[in-house]
Amino acid sequence: MRTNKNLEVKSKAWKHLFFLCVLCGLCGLIGCENHWMKEATAHMHRHSFDWRPDITPGVETIQTLACTTGCNTTRGTRAVMPSGGIFTYEGGIIRGGQPDADGKLVIPATIGGVPITIIAARAFENTGITSVEININGDIGASAFRNCTALTNVIIGSGITRITDSVFNGCTSLLEITIPVNVTNIGTNAFANTNLNKVIFNGETTISNDSFPDGASLREAYLLGGVGTYTRADGEWTRE
């Protein structure tokens, strides 16, 4: 008899537990806050993140994004430059960033005394940059400035020896480019899908049929004419 009562009690307990589980599930669907949701919200509110130290106008400032309340974990590093540009970076690699208020971006040779040797692949892809000056001694990753459709001016510094694949692919506002003497190789689609109509080669370099718009025509003209200025009209490139 006692055994039957115990079984009956246990059965009722399981039914109550099942009912509570169903109720909790329904609460989750209609947006009710249960105990665990409240705890998670409180946990988030106990933590805040901020860039430190504060920016000093006109001075290069190295900041870290840290959890300033509730933990001491560093979340990232960035540099705010005197020009107004901001870069996120790791060691000598620039991972991304943003230009100044006018859309201009000056990429320095060093940040915090550390030489910059790489602009990461796709670092500034699809951003609103209007002008970029590249002063690093190293490589530009593939598609680093791809589809920057507002980009009208590019200055490539003496520390760049090659322009990799699709770096400026899709920069439709780019009409003119100067290739400095130090660049010895230009990759596939490096300037494809741009509106370039003038290219100045200041030194000998290797290009493919796909490096520029109407690239086969430019490559043929360059192989014949060498260093100099080339202009495009009606799909054909000629040396001035």
Compose a concise summary of this entry.
The chain is of the alpha/beta class.
Describe the structure using short key phrases.
alpha/beta; 7-stranded mixed sheet; elongated
Q: Compute the average pLDDT.
A: 79
Please, how many domains?
A: 3
> What's the CATH first level of the largest domain?
Alpha Beta
Number of helical runs?
3
Q: Main β-sheet, in a few words?
A: 7 strands, mixed
The CATH superfamily of the largest domain is known as: Ribonuclease Inhibitor
What spatial form do the alpha-carbon principal axes imply?
elongated
Structural class: alpha/beta
What distance lies between the first and last C-alpha atoms, to the nearest angstrom?
109 Å
- The CATH topology of the largest domain is given as Leucine-rich repeat, LRR (right-handed beta-alpha superhelix)
Tell me the strand percentage band.
25-35%
**Helicity level:** 10-25%
Tell me what you see in this structure.
With 240 residues, this protein is an alpha/beta fold. The chain has three domains: 1-46; 47-80, no CATH class; 88-240, Leucine-rich repeat, LRR (right-handed beta-alpha superhelix), CATH 3.80.10.10. The chain has helices spanning 2-30, 35-45, 215-225; strands spanning 48-52, 61-69, 74-80, 86-90, 93-98, 104-107, 110-111, 114-115, 118-119, 131-134, 139-140, 153-156, 162-163, 176-179, 185-186, 198-201, 228-233, 236-239. The strands form five sheets. The protein has a seven-stranded mixed beta sheet with strand order 1-2-3-4-5-9-11, with no helix packed on it. Strands 14-16-17-18 form a four-stranded mixed beta sheet. Strand 3 (74-80) and strand 4 (86-90) form a beta hairpin. The radius of gyration is 29 Å and the shape is elongated. The termini are far apart. The model is unreliable at 16-24 and 26-47 (pLDDT under 50).
